[in-house]
Design brief:
It is built from 29 helices and 11 strands. By secondary structure, it is an alpha/beta fold. It is elongated, with a radius of gyration of 43 Å.
Length: about 850
């Protein structure tokens, strides 16, 4: 009988009984040499369903040939070993005499061999006679088992079995030692301690050498597993939630996790569990690391920072040791201080086994470079809306490569390879997954081993209050197993701050320095920097301070901020000088972009225009959104195309039908946007999605073959025709806009040639003929000055056709600009 006790309606097996079951299984296996493997202690004897050909009842199943010969073969080997030992002791002893001598001295081998033959005969009979098999199974061994179950408890049977096993191996040792010492087995047991004492120095030497070798490897791996993990005590962190600006919506949710960390009983008492993992993802510089430091500073718990490269090691397995060592430290800190916060920065370097482990965004190999960025000429994306720039960049990166045409992934080599190409071996990630949600084993050697050896249940492990925070800008690269609830319970996007967040961030950083900016100027600065992050804002304020110090001032002015913004947006110019023809052509090119952008756009405003050559452009007109916007409309995309086509149309109009290679990036941008409008976004002459039609094979004959290819070509040709029609219509529209604003184009071109770089307000002032912050645009409203600009352009056009120097010099700005009310030119259309 097997005793069980019930608690709460559930059956539980005592610890002693679990040990007993193991003992009974081993005992049954030991006794099966003389009985049957079907008989298991603690259960009714099992009856084999194998039937003999001559009997109708069940018989013993036939064993494998190896099971029949293994014991006789073992005894035969033992016999020859004894004969060889006798010949080794007496080299003059012949082999036949040694066999006779060992036949008398080691007769027990023949006894065991005889017992084994009897056992095999017993098995043969039981395999063929069902009655014989049933007699031994039910009457003999079954009755013995029933007797022992009635007389002894399970724990007593287990202890008897354990003592029997010890006695058996002691007897075997005594027999072997007696043969070696040439004495009786009983005396050999008393001689064993003396022999062990004599051999102890040699054994200690072997043990010492063994541990020396082990310590070398342990020391090497211990040394390699150090570093990359920094621990900060509560007093070391001064960051608070008040230092995190522009991310209030995320900060409120993170504060909620702190409540659960400090007061876990509020949720655990109601049957829930405390969320222990937070993932902060978003663009770089948005404050993810700062937010983790603020959490540690507010809670007063230790803060453990894990370096992104901590788990990238030379040898396989070092990362696993680091993970286990890290969480061992975290458990100790959690018990000592009541909680601990661990922060994994750039978590994709550790957990990269997801969609982007092998490729980059959009399915491209990591590191590819778009062809649009590599083309010299006008910076074709700077004046587009942010959404359009993202679409163009994504599409260009999807099919792009290096400038020489070779795929960029061919230039990259990874050490270790595997799925986790971004950081270390896959075992590191698996170890992290196990530690985050694996089984919590009991603490302490005594608790785990001694109590279990004594039949006592180990004490359950304590609840470790560990808040795991991770940050990444590539959430797609993380393994789904890492992001599941129970490991990472909450995922928050730390995106670009809103305008109110940018204003608060500017106020915070400007509050640390001396400045003359008014609240209106700070609000304007937040408007013209729509995608500024916390780190970018801090850097901009610092650059403005450096600009002021370089000018010999200690107070930051608005001009310092604008210079710093220009430097951060465009980078330092290369300082090259254009000759007159190229300078005028570049200025007209950018002026066409600026004028068309001012006339047709309402969702963006001009931020900066320049003809100073940079690293990747000859000139640019950059635009920024007027307000935070999360959707894009057809009219806005059409405006983007009009601005892109302005360079081609303007060069043809101002240079007698000629155009430069600088429009290549503009045409690529316009074509891509038009293609997306016509085939994907439902903003063209058709409604269906070209991408879905191509994937589903709609419009093509079934079965593939030549017919399907021809139909696919026809679909693409029709799509290309619609795109060309749309671009031609928009090109005609932009031509009319430029013809109506010819004077304004020449005015902006002249201002660019004069000042090289213009802020957005100055560009608008030149177009409208009014006074701007740095440029007085009223001079361009004078008809006489407008005629001078036209004469200069005609001279530049003649020089362009003849490849000769421009015969006229650039018109100088009059000292006395006319008033706007005295100008006879009509009031320009557009914004006032």
């Amino acid at each position: 009988m097997i005793f069980r006790r019930r608690r709460g309606g559930a059956s539980q097996t005592p610890p002693a009984e679990s040990l007993l079951r193991r003992g009974l299984r081993l005992t049954s296996t030991f006794l099966s040499g003389f009985a049957y493997p079907e008989v298991v202690w603690g259960e009714r004897p099992k009856v084999s369903l194998v039937k003999s050909a001559r009997t109708a009842g069940p018989t013993r199943p036939r064993p494998a040939p190896w099971d029949r010969i293994k014991y006789p073969l073992l005894l035969t080997v033992v016999w020859f070993i004894l004969v060889w030992a006798a010949m080794a002791d007496n080299p003059l002893l012949p082999f036949v005499d040694a066999m006779r001598e060992q036949s008398r001295a080691a007769s027990w081998v023949f006894v065991l061999l005889g017992l084994e033959l009897i056992r095999q005969g017993h098995f043969l009979i039981s395999e063929r006679s069902s009655g014989y098999h049933r007699f031994w199974t039910h009457r003999v061994f079954g009755g013995f088992e029933r007797y022992t179950h009635r007389r002894f408890s399970p724990w007593t049977r287990f202890r008897v079995w354990r003592a029997t096993v010890w006695l058996f191996w002691i007897a075997v040792f005594a027999v072997v030692a007696g043969k070696v010492l040439d004495t009786s087995p009983a005396l050999a047991l008393f001689e064993a301690p003396r022999l062990l004492w004599e051999a102890l120095p040699f054994l200690l030497q072997i043990i010492f050498l063994f541990f020396v070798i082990i310590i070398q490897f342990v020391g090497l791996f211990w040394f390699l597993s150090r570093g990359g993990v920094d621990t900060y005590m509560p007093d070391d962190i001064k960051t608070r939630f008040g230092d995190v600006w522009g991310q209030d919506h995320v900060l409120e949710r993170v504060k909620e996790n702190i409540v659960f960390l400090e007061k876990p009983q509020e949720i655990e008492a109601k049957g829930g569990y405390v969320p222990g993992g937070i993932l902060l993802w978003g663009p770089p510089g948005t404050g993810k690391t700062l937010m983790a430091e603020a959490v540690a500073g507010e809670t007063g718990h230790p803060y453990v920072f894990v370096d992104p490269g901590a788990f990238i090691q030379m040898f396989m397995g070092i990362g696993v040791l680091k993970v286990k060592s890290l969480f061992r430290k975290l458990r100790k800190l959690a018990l000592r201080y009541g909680g601990v916060i661990v922060f994994f920065d750039e978590a994709d370097s550790l957990g990269r086994r997801g969609a982007l482990a092998q490729v980059g965004p959009g399915g491209r190999p990591a590191g590819t470079r778009p062809a649009a960025f590599a083309a010299a000429g006008c910076h074709g994306l700077s004046y587009l809306s942010p959404d359009t720039r993202w679409q163009l960049a994504r599409d260009a990166l999807h099919s792009g490569g290096t400038p020489d045409g070779t795929p960029a992934w061919r230039d990259r080599f990874f050490m270790g390879g595997g799925l986790n190409a971004g950081g270390g071996d896959t075992g590191t990630l698996q170890a992290l997954l196990t530690e985050l949600s694996g089984l919590k084993k009991p603490r302490g050697i005594v608790n785990r081993y001694v109590r279990r050896l004594l039949g006592m249940k180990p004490k359950p492990p304590p609840k470790y209050r560990i808040l795991v925070m991770m940050a990444t800008n590539m959430p797609e690269a993380l393994d789904e197993a890492l992001l599941r609830p129970g490991r990472i319970d909450r995922i928050y996007k730390v995106g670009y701050p809103s305008k109110a967040g940018r204003v608060r961030t500017y106020e915070g950083y400007f509050g640390k320095v001396r400045h003359e900016l008014t609240p209106e100027e700070i609000d304007k600065l937040a408007t013209i920097t729509p995608y500024a992050t916390g780190a970018g804002i801090k850097d901009l304020v610092n650059e403005a301070l450096i600009t002021a110090i370089r000018a010999g001032r200690e107070v930051i002015t608005w001009a310092d901020v604008m210079k710093a913004k220009q430097l951060k947006s465009l980078g330092p110019p290369e300082g090259v000088e254009y000759h007159d023809r190229e300078r005028h052509a570049t200025a007209v090119h950018e002026a066409c972009h600026a004028v068309v952008a001012y006339r047709v756009r309402r969702h963006l405003e001009i931020d900066i225009a320049t003809i100073e050559k940079g690293a990747e452009y000859l000139g640019m007109v950059a635009s920024i959104p007027v307000e935070d916007q999360f959707t894009q409309w057809r009219s806005e995309y059409e405006a983007d195309i009009l601005v892109s086509l302005a360079s081609l149309s303007g060069e043809r109009m101002f240079f007698g039908g000629d155009s430069s290679s600088g429009v290549s990036g503009d045409l690529e941008s316009a074509t891509r946007v038009a293609s997306l409008m016509e085939g994907y976004w439902g903003m063209g002459s058709t409604v269906s999605s070209h991408a879905v039609s191509s994937q589903l094979g709609m419009g093509t004959p079934g079965g593939g073959g030549k017919g399907a290819k021809e139909a696919e070509k026809e679909m693409r040709r029709q799509l290309a025709d619609r795109i060309e029609d749309q671009l031609a219509t928009l090109l005609a529209r932009v031509e009319r806009i430029l013809e109506e604003n010819r004077a304004q184009v020449l005015a902006v071109a002249h201002a660019l040639e004069t000042h090289k770089t213009l802020q957005g307000e100055d560009v608008v002032a030149v177009i409208e003929g009014r006074e701007g912050p740095l440029v007085d645009g009223r001079v361009y409203a004078d008809p006489a000055f407008t005629r001078e600009l036209e004469e200069y352009h005609q001279a530049a056009l003649a020089a362009h056709r003849g490849r000769t120097p421009v015969r006229l010099s650039l018109p100088a700005v009059p000292d006395e600009p006319v008033r706007r009310d005295s100008a006879k030119s009509p009031v320009p259309e557009g914004r006032s």
